[in-house]
């Protein structure tokens, strides 16, 4: 694997942003020091044509002008916390409700997606580090976060480590929007999705899980066999209608590193297989992407459902749902998770 870097631009506050490009065989992936954003991932389609399979932008200003977390790392806590209320030990804290004033979302007003990370080239990957000060976005404890991107010919992996000086919340994820037809190819409706999970966590009207764990059996959430995204995303099944499509946490069976999901594009043959050791995965079909997004890479026009996300994570809203695994890292412990995105082509 080879890694090169170049300047990418400057933030509105004058901070320089670098782009690191990892190349291995005929695959390459670019990562920004802004938000640890995966800015591109180019792989050959079944005819060998290079195809960039993640949505992204060509300028820092475009990333700063959108609020869809495109390609970014998420922290300290991915997804929603109803009313912004967390409990760590005996103490309750109230965090900013940056999601329609009702939930804390993806780490708050200025989450890890908008921070500048410190990059170090390792022999086998790109290391990004961010020191989140005690009290940042209302969270207790100074949290030292490391994310390592690695690219082998067919697998892009993100490994996270974190340590805190006080017990705190830690639930790190990544918010790439994949489009296996190529980032500029429009809706992902005809692409196929399979999620290796029997259960998911239904949402309340605030789009945060209720605490219930439901079976996928007999519902549009049953993706155990591959189906087109558009077979289910406009269903009038209450949970789909509520979220405007898929925007739910699935619970892959078992623990440790295991299969989570597979998606593929019939046109390009490009297939993505996700494995992780996290407790859950949010399948999000880009229902909130809008045509007023900044112009995408190479003048691409992005709109609703032009990408899908598979955000490996702790189950959302865990603080209001005591039976859910709690995303707490204790002082002195090391938080450690890994997610692998493996590329292949089907004939
Ligand atoms: C997803 C979340 C969606 C939406 C999106 C960002 O992770 O599940 O509801 O908030 O992030 O636009």
In words, what does this structure look like?
The chain has 347 residues and is mainly beta. 4% of the residues lie in helices and 41% in strands. It has three helices and 27 strands. It has helices spanning 60-64, 229-232, 238-243; strands at 2-10, 16-24, 27-32, 38-44, 50-52, 72-74, 80-82, 85-88, 91-94, 103-105, 118-122, 125-132, 143-151, 155-164, 168-169, 173-175, 192-195, 197-201, 214-215, 227-228, 247-252, 258-264, 270-276, 280-284, 309-313, 328-329, 335-345. The strands form seven sheets. The protein has a nine-stranded antiparallel sheet. A hairpin with a 2-residue loop joins strand 2 (16-24) and strand 3. The longest helix has 6 residues, at 238-243. The model has no long low-confidence stretch (mean pLDDT 97). The structure holds beta-D-galactopyranose. The site of beta-D-galactopyranose has 10 residues, from strand 24.
Secondary-structure topology with pairs:
Blueprint: E1 2-10, E2 16-24, E3 27-32, E4 38-44, E5 50-52, H1 60-64, E6 72-74, E7 80-82, E8 85-88, E9 91-94, E10 103-105, E11 118-122, E12 125-132, E13 143-151, E14 155-164, E15 168-169, E16 173-175, E17 192-195, E18 197-201, E19 214-215, E20 227-228, H2 229-232, H3 238-243, E21 247-252, E22 258-264, E23 270-276, E24 280-284, E25 309-313, E26 328-329, E27 335-345
Antiparallel strand pairs: 1-2, 2-3, 3-4, 4-5, 6-16, 7-10, 8-9, 11-12, 12-13, 13-14, 14-27, 15-26, 17-20, 17-22, 18-19, 18-21, 21-24, 22-23, 23-27, 24-25
